[in-house]
Amino acid sequence: MRLLTVPNWSFGRDRDLLQLFESLLSGWGLTIHFLASDVDHNRTVTAFSGDAEVVFERLERLSEAAFERIDLNRHVGVHPRIGALDVCPFIRLDHSTSYPLALKIEAFGQRLAQQFGIPIYLYERSERGKHAGDLPTLRRGGFGGLQMQVLNPDFGPDHVHPRLGATVMGERGFLIALNANFHGIHLSAVKAIAKAMREARDAGDSRLVAVRALGLPLASRDQCQVSMNLTQPENTPVDDVLNWVEGHVRRHGLRSAGNELIGVIPESSVATASRVPIADQQIVRVVP
């Protein structure tokens, strides 16, 4: 079965590790859809797909490499995180097979927990009723907040790893990660826009179904950002979201520095995403 994974790692300033990731993913029959680090987020997003067994094997090699070098006690970045491997979603690209993905994810989670002593939380479609199933709730308080708690993970210890934190993983549908960037560090403005977006979503605005948003500074670029996750892209056209943002940007006098697609986009969403640059390799096709 063809499987896509989009692991997010808590490093963004280690060029040697990024190059090692590239070498570990090359030559295994995988498609590398996205592989990029961000200095301000201090985060690396990888997205690759291929035969499910190869995907899990390469993901384990990436984890071994990353866990040798990441120390969350020395990690500074604007993006929320609780783990060195912060979140690791899996998306089926072929629904015509009966591949036991749930069992494979659980086996992989158990293996990481046993090998590295990391608490592993299952989320989204993999969550089994033991705790919250959504990422924002599981990540609430960040690495520092979890250090003070007794945890209730699906696998691993009841406390965070002192250096690697905890990891959230599981099967989910597609998610579109989208950034709208602006010149200057106008943090109050982008935070206000993100808050207004969440409020409009909760009030039932049909353009913002299941959209999550944060306002963040990008000091290295002298920019700021509205960072968005479209968690139901089948119900939320990208252009509608960006049009909504543009309407609110005018009120704050912000100047656009461009939009970014982070990771992948399903082929079915491309037609309604005309306002964000999309590389060919970022487009992913699903077999019904």
Question: How would you characterize this protein structure?
Answer:
Helix content is 30%, strand content 26%. The chain has seven helices and 13 strands. It has helices spanning 15-25, 52-69, 101-116, 135-138, 142-146, 187-202, 238-252; strands at 2-5, 8-9, 31-38, 43-51, 85-92, 120-122, 167-171, 176-183, 211-218, 223-230, 256-262, 265-266, 283-284. Helix 1 packs antiparallel against helix 2 (52-69) and helix 6 crosses helix 7 (238-252). The longest helix has 18 residues, at 52-69.
Question: Concise description?
Answer:
This protein has helices spanning 15-25, 52-69, 101-116, 135-138, 142-146, 187-202, 238-252; strands spanning 2-5, 8-9, 31-38, 43-51, 85-92, 120-122, 167-171, 176-183, 211-218, 223-230, 256-262, 265-266, 283-284. It is of the alpha+beta class and 288 residues long. Strands 1, 2, 3, 4, 5, 6 and 7 form a 7-stranded mixed β-sheet that branches.
Name the CATH superfamily classification of the largest domain.
Formiminotransferase, N-terminal subdomain
Count of helical regions: 7
Query: How many beta-strand segments?
Result: 13
Determine the structural class based on helices, strands and strand pairing.
Answer: alpha+beta
Low-confidence stretches: none
| % residues in beta strands | 25-35%
Separation, N- and C-terminal Cα atoms: 12 Å
Residues in helices, as a percent range:
25-40%
CATH architecture type of the largest domain:
2-Layer Sandwich
Structural shape: globular
Major beta sheet summary: 7 strands, mixed
Radius of gyration: 18 Å
CATH class of the largest domain: Alpha Beta
Predict the CATH topology of the largest domain.
Formiminotransferase-cyclodeaminase, Chain B, domain 1
Count of the domains: 2
Quote the average pLDDT.
97
Written as H for each helix and E for each strand, in order along the chain, the element string is EEHEEHEHEHHEEHEEHEEE
